[in-house]
Design goal:
Shape: globular
Order of helices and strands: EHEHEHEHHEHEHEHHEHEHHHEEEHE
Largest sheet: 5 strands, parallel
C-alpha cells in the first residue's frame, strides 16, 4: 500500500498479525506475507523494511533492505528504532489512508460489476458494508439473512439501521425455517458452523440469481476469524462461517474481504472514520453463526427463545451499570445441562445458563471481566425470575487461552 510499507514475513507463528498490529499502531503500514512468498513478489511490493518472525531467509536478507528478526519478547523500543531510524518511516500512517487504499483497490477490482455484501448486522459486516458502499455505491447489494439465530429484536434493528444509513440496495431474507431445519438434530459445534456457513452461501447465491449477474461476494472477515479457522498451515480452533465454514464450491467469481488483515479495534476505527453511528460501531460483537453456537447441544426454537430473553436481560444490566464500553464482549449461553431447583414450593429440573464477559484488545487473547457482584446478582435474579426454564446461572471465569471467547 503506497510507500513506507513494512512487510512481516511469517514463518508459521500465530502472533504475526499481533506484531503487524503493533507496527500499525506505531503509524507504519504493515502487511504479513507467508515465508513462501517469492523474492520477486517481495520486490514488487517495494517495502522499506522487512521483519522476520520465527525464521529467516538469506535470499531476502540480500535485498539491501533493513531487516529485523523479532521474537515474542521483543514488548516496543527496538521496534520503534527499526521503523523510525533504520527504515526512516515517518509514522504518519492512519486508518483514513487504509480506507483510501481499500476504496481504490475495491473500485479497481469490481470495475463496472456488482457485489453482494453478506450482512449479518454485526460490527464487522456493518463496517465492510459502509466501506463497500463508499467505494461502489449503487453497485452494491446488501443481503441480510435472518437465520432465526439472531438476538432479541435484532433482525428489525438491522433492517432499520441499514435502510436509514446507506444508499445501497438492502434485501432482507427471512430464512429461519430453512436454517433450523438444516440444524435439526445437530449437536456437534463444528458441524453447526459448517452447516450455517454453507446455508449462508446458498442463500446468497439464490438471491444473486434473482438480482441478475453478481460477480463478487463481500464478507466482513477479520484476522482472528482466519487464525481460528486454521487457514494455511494453522490448526483449526473453530471454523468461522465466513472462512473455514465456506463450502468448497462457491458460485461467485471472487470473494472481497477488505478487513481480513485487521483486528476488531482497527475495524471500529474504520467505522468511525466512515461516519457510522456509534450504536453500529460499538455494537456487541456477534458471531456469524449467531445464537446457534450459544446453544450447547441440539438447537431448538424453545431453547433459542429462552436464550434470547436471558441474553437481553444480561446485556441490559451491563448497560445500566455503565459497563457496556469497558467490557469488549458479553453474552449468555444456554447449556445442555439441567439441574434441580426450586420455584415457589415446586421442584424444578431446568437449564443452567452461563454468562460470559471478556476484556480484550485484539480478540486473539482475552481476560474474563471482573463484573461487580451486585451487577451479576441483579442479572441472575432477573433471569431466574423472568425467564422460564432457567433455574441456575453461572459465570464463566476462564480467560482465552485456554478457552475461546465463544463456547462453541
Amino acid at each position: 500500500m503506497e510507500n513506507q510499507l513494512v512487510i512481516l514475513m511469517d514463518f508459521g507463528s500465530q502472533n504475526s498479525q499481533l506484531i503487524a498490529g503493533r507496527v500499525r499502531r506505531l503509524g507504519v503500514y504493515c502487511e504479513v506475507k507467508p515465508s513462501t512468498a517469492t523474492i520477486d513478489e517481495i520486490k514488487e511490493l517495494n517495502p522499506v523494511g522487512i521483519i522476520f518472525n520465527g525464521g529467516s531467509s538469506q535470499e531476502i536478507s540480500n535485498l539491501g533492505i533493513p531487516i529485523l528478526e523479532i521474537g515474542p519478547q521483543t514488548n516496543n523500543e527496538l521496534l520503534k528504532d527499526f521503523l523510525y531510524i533504520d527504515c526512516k518511516c515517518t509514522g504518519d500512517w492512519t486508518m483514513s489512508r487504509y480506507i483510501d487504499y481499500q476504496i481504490k483497490s475495491i473500485r479497481d477490482k469490481v470495475g463496472d460489476g456488482k457485489a453482494l455484501c453478506a450482512l449479518s448486522g454485526g460490527v464487522d459486516s456493518s463496517v465492510v458494508a459502509a466501506l463497500m458502499s463508499k467505494a461502489i455505491d449503487k453497485q452494491l447489494i446488501c443481503v441480510f439473512v435472518d437465520t432465526g439465530l439472531m438476538r432479541k429484536n435484532e433482525g428489525d434493528e438491522v433492517e432499520a439501521a441499514f435502510s436509514k444509513n446507506f444508499d445501497s440496495t438492502f434485501i432482507r431474507v427471512n430464512a429461519q425455517d430453512r436454517f433450523l431445519s438444516r440444524l435439526e438434530g445437530v449437536a456437534d459445534p463444528e458441524s453447526k458452523r459448517k452447516i450455517i456457513g454453507e446455508e449462508f452461501i446458498r442463500v446468497f447465491e439464490e438471491e444473486a440469481k434473482k438480482i441478475g449477474k453478481i460477480d463478487f461476494l463481500v464478507q466482513g472477515t477479520i484476522y482472528p476469524d482466519i487464525i481460528e479457522s486454521g487457514v494455511g498451515d494453522g490448526k483449526v480452533i473453530k471454523s468461522h462461517h465466513n472462512v473455514g465454514g465456506l463450502p468448497s464450491v462457491v458460485d461467485f467469481k471472487e470473494l472481497i474481504e477488505p478487513l481480513r488483515l485487521l483486528f476488531k479495534e482497527e475495524v471500529r476505527k474504520i467505522g468511525q472514520e466512515l461516519g457510522l453511528p456509534d450504536y453500529l460501531v460499538w455494537r456487541q460483537p456477534f458471531p456469524g453463526p449467531g445464537l446457534g453456537i450459544r446453544v450447547i447441544g441440539e438447537i431448538t426454537k424453545d431453547k433459542l427463545e429462552i436464550l434470547r430473553e436471558a441474553d437481553h436481560i444480561f446485556r441490559e444490566e451491563i448497560a445500566k451499570a455503565g459497563l457496556d464500553r469497558d467490557i469488549n464482549q458479553y453474552f449468555a449461553v444456554i447449556t445442555d445441562m439441567r439441574s434441580v431447583g426450586v420455584t415457589g414450593d415446586e421442584r424444578t429440573y431446568d437449564y443452567t445458563l452461563a454468562l460470559r464477559a471478556v476484556e480484550t484488545k485484539d480478540f486473539m487473547s482475552a481476560d474474563w471481566a471482573r463484573i461487580p457482584y451486585d451487577v451479576l446478582d441483579t442479572a441472575s435474579r432477573r433471569i431466574t425470575n423472568e425467564v422460564n426454564h432457567i433455574n441456575r446461572v453461572v459465570y464463566d471465569i476462564t480467560s482465552k487461552p485456554p478457552a475461546t471467547i465463544e463456547w462453541e
